[in-house]
């Protein structure tokens, strides 16, 4: 996936404001719940259109498993369908009739949720393993050939996020590792984050500007 790195900053900035505005309130308190709900509504309004998110998820699949780029169909859904939760749903594609047609339908409330659903299916239904290169890399030889992907139960598989955001990274990595990365390495890392369901990575791009706006 190739998002604008600045798109991560509003969420981080808004989370910081949550604790500045409500320093003595836990997330379970009424002010905390209302504040987080407000942030989520803002984030949903700023999200890319469904077609863009679906295309980004398809691009991850082409880079990860190009031989099966036509085996999956991705679709954005609204979280209103599932009680307001962010989630992914894996189903047998209703229109599958022959080899070459999409066999598995993965729906999600965001592009990241769709890609996380793809990872879940490849891991739990196909026995594959997706990790960093130095810890095994992408081991996909167990994925069946096109047209022979394992089916799921007729009711489908639904997974909801227990929390809205899955956070990743720490401050020191920006200088120790990221400073030396080119776009190809960044793209691989962003794809890996999406496959793991991470939707809030630490991004220092423009961080000093945010500090100035918050503390001045």
TrEMBL record:
Signal sequence segment: 1-28
Domain Alpha-N-acetylglucosaminidase N-terminal: 55-150
InterPro entries to which the protein is assigned, alphabetical: Hex-like_dom2, NAGLU, NAGLU_N, NAGLU_tim-barrel
Lineage of origin: Eukaryota, Viridiplantae, Streptophyta, Embryophyta, Tracheophyta
Keyword line: Hydrolase, Signal
The species this protein was found in: Stylosanthes scabra
Segments forming domain Alpha-N-acetylglucosaminidase tim-barrel: 167-216
Domain of life where this protein originates: Eukaryota
Protein name: Alpha-N-acetylglucosaminidase
């Amino acid at each position: 996936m190739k998002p604008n790195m600045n798109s991560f900053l509003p969420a981080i900035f808004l989370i910081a404001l949550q604790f500045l505005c409500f320093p003595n309130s836990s997330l379970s308190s009424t002010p905390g719940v209302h504040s987080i709900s407000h942030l989520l509504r803002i984030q949903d309004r700023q999200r890319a259109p469904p077609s863009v998110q679906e295309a980004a998820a398809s691009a991850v699949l082409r880079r990860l498993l190009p031989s099966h780029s036509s085996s999956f169909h991705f679709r954005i859904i609204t979280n209103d369908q599932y009680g307001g939760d962010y989630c992914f749903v894996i189903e047998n594609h209703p229109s599958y009739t022959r080899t070459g047609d999409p066999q598995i339908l993965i729906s999600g409330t965001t592009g990241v949720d769709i890609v996380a659903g793809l990872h879940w299916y490849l891991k739990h239904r196909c026995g594959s393993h997706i990790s960093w290169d130095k810890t095994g890399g992408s081991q996909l030889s167990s994925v069946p050939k096109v047209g022979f992907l394992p089916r799921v139960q007729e009711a489908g598989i639904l997974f909801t996020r227990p929390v809205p955001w899955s956070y990743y990274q720490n401050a020191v990595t920006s200088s120790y590792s990221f400073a030396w990365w080119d776009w190809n390495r960044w793209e691989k890392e962003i794809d890996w984050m999406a496959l793991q369901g991470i939707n809030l990575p630490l991004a220092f791009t423009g961080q000093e500007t945010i500090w100035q706006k918050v503390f001045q």
